[in-house]
Amino acid sequence: MSQAVDIAETVCNPLWFADRYDPGQDAVHFRWLPRDVHRTATFLTDDYLPAGQAPRVIRRGDALAVGAPAAPLHFIFHSAFCCSTLLARAFDAPGAAMGLKEPVILNDLVGWQHRGGTARAIAPVLDAAMALLARPFAPGEAVVVKPSNVTNGLAPGMLTMRPAARALLLHAPLPVYLGSIAKKGMDGRLWARDLLVKQLREGLHPFGYKVDDYLGQTDLQVAALGWLAQHALFAGLAGQFPERVRTLDSEVLMAQPAAKLAALAAFYGIAIDVPAAVAGPAFTTHSKSGAGFDGAARAAEIDAAAGVHADEIAKVTFWAGKVAEAAGVPMVLPLGL
To answer: What b/e sequence results for 299-321 when a residue is b if at least 16 CB atoms lie within 10 Å of its CB, and e otherwise?
Structure first.
């Protein structure tokens, strides 16, 4: 463990990022990440961050005892393939806010949960993780966290623990979501089944299916149920926190980028330069490849995927609508931004 002098230096400096949590040691691993590294990394995971750096490992209680400054904290919860990374990048606005893209420390808590961690044990660590993620990168800045969608089951607890936080619930229309998975081939279909396994462990499927039923479904049917499970969760959040959450469809965002970004910034209470953000790299380059990209390019990509898989997507979308109707899950979420 770090010496006491290093604890204060580390925890008070947000460039020492709260990267991982080790439940065996009840310790946080801090990783040195300057703002330009945050900016260029697609996600805050080992695949996209510089290798070879030794973390500073500090016990959770020692880290919290420092009493580091806390910024206003807000969230972008999402159901994947819906421009969430784009929005997080748009809140990299020095002097106003910083956007954090899928911090792994939250994924670590989900993994712990799946290995048998109890809600009673995980809750104080989730609270600590949010406190450490909320350290401002500069005076007066807010922090906007875009968790991975595998952490969506933690969203009710996160909003309960942070009564001042607001959240956007972002999703793609179901046909767009299915097209995104289909165009990725086997990798996309495996991803959808892996998400199903995680959601079933967390009891997030209110559809009445048994394990054998899922085995008999096609990959895109499984993907549609994963989307519906997230929609059900988002609808529940909208009912539980009506003043503090808003919902948004990715295609509406891309059709009205300035209006929707301005509305979201106002909802969060963050003063960003909306025209500069819309003209900047968040909206003009691909979040993952860095190549030039915009709403027209996204629409062309969606149309290409839909063309190849149109028959299957149409049939699964129709079927999913019937499943949603039977389960009482709205296909259109309330509280639109």
So the answer is: eebbeebbeebeebbeebbebbe
What angle (nearest 5°) sits at the alpha carbon of residue 233, between those of residues 232 and 239? 90
Q: 53 Cβ partners below 8 Å, 6+ apart? A: 31, 32
- Give the per-residue pLDDT at 82: 95
Q: Confirm whether pTM is higher than 0.90.
A: yes
Percentage of the chain beyond pLDDT 90 is 87
Around Cβ 80, how many Cβ atoms within 10 Å? Answer: 22
pLDDT above 70 covers a percentage of the chain that reads 95
pLDDT-derived band of residue 2, with 50, 70 and 90 as boundaries? very low
Mean pLDDT of 307-317: 91
Shortest CA distance to 91 belongs to which of 292, 287, 291, 264?
Answer: 264
Per-residue CA distances from 254 to 4, 93, 308 (Å)? 48, 20, 23
Q: Domain ranges in the chain?
A: 72-327
> Is the Cβ–Cβ distance between 30 and 3 less than 8 Å?
no
What fold is seen in the domain 72-327? Rossmann fold (3.40.50)
pLDDT-derived band at 75 (thresholds 50, 70, 90) equals very high
Length of the chain: 337
Cβ neighbors of 10 (< 8 A, separation 6 or more) are: 2, 16, 30, 56, 58, 63
Task: Enter the tokens of residue 32.
Answer: 């040195």
Interatomic CA distance for residues 218 and 192, integer angstroms: 11
pLDDT score, position 293: 67
Residue 20 phi/psi, 5-degree rounding, is -135, 160
pLDDT in tens, 109-151: 999 999 999 999 999 999 999 999 999 999 999 999 999 999 9
d(CA 122, CA 321): 35
Q: What's the angle, vertex CA 154, arms to CA 213 and CA 128, rounded to 5?
A: 150
In this structure, the number of other CB atoms found within 10 A of the CB of residue 322 comes to: 9
The residue among 50, 56, 45, 63 whose CA lies nearest residue 8 is: 63
